[in-house]
Structures are given as C-alpha cells and as structure tokens.
Design brief:
The chain is α/β, with parallel strands linked by helices and 465 residues long. It has two domains: 196 residues, 3-Deoxy-D-manno-octulosonic-acid transferase, N-terminal domain (Rossmann fold, 3-Layer(aba) Sandwich); 194 residues, Glycogen Phosphorylase B (Rossmann fold). Helices cover 49% and strands 14% of the residues. The chain has 20 helices and 14 strands. The protein has a seven-stranded parallel β-sheet with strand order 3-2-1-4-5-6-7, with helices on both faces. Strands 10-11-9-8-12-13-14 form a seven-stranded parallel β-sheet. α7 links the parallel β4 and β5. The chain is globular and about 70 Å long. It starts with a helix and ends with a helix.
Length: 465
C-alpha cells in the first residue's frame, strides 16, 4: 500500500510539473480573447485618434531590434521598459545614472504606446528604442532571444507573467523600479493572490517608493528580502533651475516678458481646460500681465481644446506655430496671451516658466498627474481633489503646506486670485514646495545600487567554487 501511495504521489507530482508549462498557453488564449473582443474599439481608436497603427511585428511577434551587448563590444545589457510618456520620462534619471557609473553597459528601452515611442525616440536619440512585445509567450521569447539582456528593468508596476517567466528561464535578472501598488490594485491582486505570489517571487529586486507599497507587495507574497524601499525616482528627475536651457528657449519662443505672470495648467483633461479658461477670462482685465499656458494630457485632445479656445473668443496661439520664432519677439506686435502646447514631451520644461500651476487629471476620474515637476521649480502648485495615483506625494506636500487642493472652479479661481493679489503668499508656497522636493532626492542612486548588488550576487553564485 505504501509503495502504491508513493507511486501515486510520484505520478501526481509528474503531472503537476507537466501542467505548469500550460500556464503561458492559457494566458495566450485569454489575451487573444480579450483582443478579439476589443477589436471594434481598437479600430475606432485607430481611425478616429490615430492610435494602434504601428509596431505590430514587435508587439505580436517579438521582432524587436537585435541589440545584444556583445554586438558593440560591451559585456552587459540592460533592457528598461516604460509603458508610456510618464514612465519614459521617469527612466531618464535611471538611465543617466547607470551610464554614468557603467559606461560599459548597453542600455535599450522599450515602450507600449505611440506617444511613449515618439517621446522615447526624441529623448533617447541614438539609443535602441522599440515597442515592447505583448505578453504572448512566442512574442516575449523571440524578443528576449533578440535583445539577450542580462537585466530586465520594469518601471512602477508592469507585471507581465509570460515576459517575467521567460526572462527568468533564460537567467535574466528582473527588477521593478519605482514600484507602487495602489489600494485599488492591491484589492484586485488579492483576489488572485496564488498567481500573483508566484509571479512576484520570480522578481529579484522590488524597489518601491514607500513602506506602504512595500507592505502590500509582501502581503501579496513577494519575498521580503527582495522588497526594498528606495523612495520615488520622480523627485530625482525634477529640474529645479528655471534658467535651464530648455525652459529659457521655450520662454523666448512664447515671448514671455520678465513681468509676465504665467498660469500653467498641465496634463489637463476635460473639463479642466474650461475651468482654467473661465478663471483666466475673469482675472485678465485686472491683471493684464497674466499669461496662460494649456498643456492637455493626451495629444488626441489637442483639436478639441483648440475648438474650446475658439469658443471663448480670446486670442490664442499654438505651440507648433512658434518654431523658428526665437529672436522675432517684438513688443509692437505682442504674442497672444494664451498658448496651447500641442506637442508631446515638453511639459517638464514648460513648468519652469510657470508662477502659478494647476496639475490636471485631478478633477475627474484620472487620479491625478505628476505634481513634483512644478513643485521643484518653486511654482505655487494647485490640483483637484482626485489624486489617488499620487496619494503619498500629495499627503506629504499638504503636510508641509507646499500645495493647495482646489475642489471646483470657484476654489480654483479664488486660489489664482490670491496668488495674484498676494505675491508673498505665492512665493512662500512655491518655496516650501521646492524645499520639499529637494529633501526627497536620492532614490535613483539607491535603485542603481540595488541592481548592481543583485547582478554582482548572481555573478558570484554563477562563478565555479
């Protein structure tokens, strides 16, 4: 009987081992089903908004550029993945730090969205940039075979099972940097904890922004020793010098005078532009030196915002109409006092021109956008009440009286009016914001140190004794 039970257990264990490889194929079926169901929406987005028109070979088949480090004489390859514009910007400081300390390492970067790709090509010109494959098993296998990375670095929370599993099967170290896990995502992952725990245990480094996120990852089953609190890299990427060349160039293009007061609303979504325009129109007569810069979050809304501007009947200008205009600023023909920034990737520099800032995506269901950049420049920062994507940053800024929450159009107008009527209030608010950002620096260096330590440990373990 004992031998029979042992035999049955062995058969069960063998079958269990055989079932494990089925997971990638089950995921493939789920992904295909979701794509089939989404085809009408994808077609509509492609026709109406120009999305999802490129990168199919990379996304569905893994035909990314061949970019192994040995091809250019280097010995180590780091594959960094950023989903869209925010993450592409975020990885700039990490990439700079890696290349500073390890010029012999080859760094390549992937992204998912068309806007992310456009920015990455512009921001990282001369480096290898490509669309990340979708999480189909054949696509990620082909991509990993072509890139042959030593380390796969995922920004914030990109947990794709097939990609991570195949990377580990090939001996690639996997790191999540600037990790965060919101309360809503945490509750969702808890429902499938056994699957998530197995995935998290394959990750070698989980560098997270704060202890709250760290504890959530541990509760989901991550190995405690892999979870490290490094702080947010978004602080390190923030520019604090208003005299930087990019900001000065944009200010010259826009024709900003030294006594102009710039109100900038960045990463806006409907109906935030209308709120800002109404406030601007109310205050312009009393404050003729007030200038307004609008930077919508999504490029596909540029035309809708342009129509909104026309409906207000105020003179305005597009950013794309300013190229080549440096040196042509003439006091006798002043620029319109409203500027629509209809290009991608410049918001960080535009924040440096602002005196009063509104961070969009915070009045609706978006959950807020990055408020660190205007704070770092010392602008008087405001945002709406819905900022759960940046809950910890918001809490810290409000605790230090470094920002103001405006819950509706009336409160926003009152905030802007107070900044204009009481410049000392605006200056003190901006000064506290800048000091707060400066106190949070250093996450990027800590993250690179963790990646180095993990790679060194792997090298030691692989070395014959």
């Amino acid at each position: 009987m004992a031998s029979y039970l042992v035999g049955k257990r062995s058969i069960w264990q063998h079958r269990r081992r055989e079932r494990i490889p089925l997971l990638p194929y089950l995921l493939n079926c789920v992904y295909l089903l979701l794509i089939l169901l989404a085809i009408p929406w994808l077609v509509w987005q492609s026709v109406r908004k120009g999305k999802y028109r490129e990168g199919y070979a990379a996304k569905f088949l893994g035909f990314v550029p061949r970019c192994a480090a040995e091809d250019d004489g280097r010995k180590f390859c780091v594959w960094l993945h950023a989903v869209s514009v925010g993450e592409v910007n975020l990885l700039a400081t990490l990439l700079k730090e890696i290349e500073k300390w390890h010029p012999d390492w080859k760094c390549v970067l992937s992204t998912t969205t068309a806007t992310g790709m456009a920015l990455a090509k512009k921001k990282y010109a001369g480096r290898t940039v490509f669309y990340c494959p979708l999480d189909f098993s054949w696509a990620v296998k082909n991509a990993l075979r072509r890139v042959r990375p030593d380390v796969l670095v995922l920004a914030e929370l990109e947990l794709w099972p097939n990609l991570i599993r195949e990377a580990k099967r090939r001996g690639v170290q996997v790191a999540v940097v600037n990790g965060r896990l919101g309360e809503k995502s945490f509750r969702g992952y808890r429902r499938i904890r056994p699957l998530v725990a197995g995935l998290l245990r394959r990750i070698d480094v989980l560098a997270v922004q704060d202890e709250t996120y760290a504890e959530r990852f541990r509760k989901l089953g991550a190995c405690p020793k892999t979870v490290q609190v490094t702080g947010s890299m978004k602080y390190d990427g923030a520019q604090t010098d208003r005299e930087n060349s990019a900001t000065r160039r944009l200010a010259a293009l826009a024709g900003f005078a030294s006594d102009d007061i710039v109100l900038l609303a960045g990463s806006t979504q409907e109906p935030e532009e209308a709120m800002v325009l109404e406030t601007f129109r109310e205050l312009l007569e009393k404050h003729p030196r007030l200038r307004l810069v609008l930077v919508p979050r999504h490029p596909d809304r540029f035309e809708a915002v342009a129509k909104l501007l026309d409906s207000f009947g105020l003179p305005w200008q597009r950013r794309t109409a300013l190229d080549g205009a440096v040196g042509e600023v003439d006091d006798s023909s002043p620029k319109p006092r409203i500027l629509l920034v209809d290009v991608v990737g410049e918001l960080g520099a535009w924040w440096g021109t602002s005196h009063i800032a509104f961070v969009g995506g915070s009045m609706g269901r978006r959950g807020g956008q990055n408020m660190i950049e205007p704070a770092a420049y010392g602008a008087a920062v405001s945002f709406g009440p819905n900022t759960w994507n940046f809950r910890d940053i918001v809490a810290a800024m409000l605790e230090r009286e470094a920002a103001v929450v405006v819950r509706d159009k009336t409160e926003f107008a009152a905030f802007v009016r107070r900044c204009l009527d009481d410049p000392m209030f605006a200056a003190a608010l901006g000064r506290r914001a800048q000091q707060f950002v400066q106190s949070q620096l250093g996450a990027t260096q800590r993250t690179v140190a963790l990646i180095e330590e993990t790679c060194s440990r792997q090298e030691r373990e692989a070395r014959p004794s």
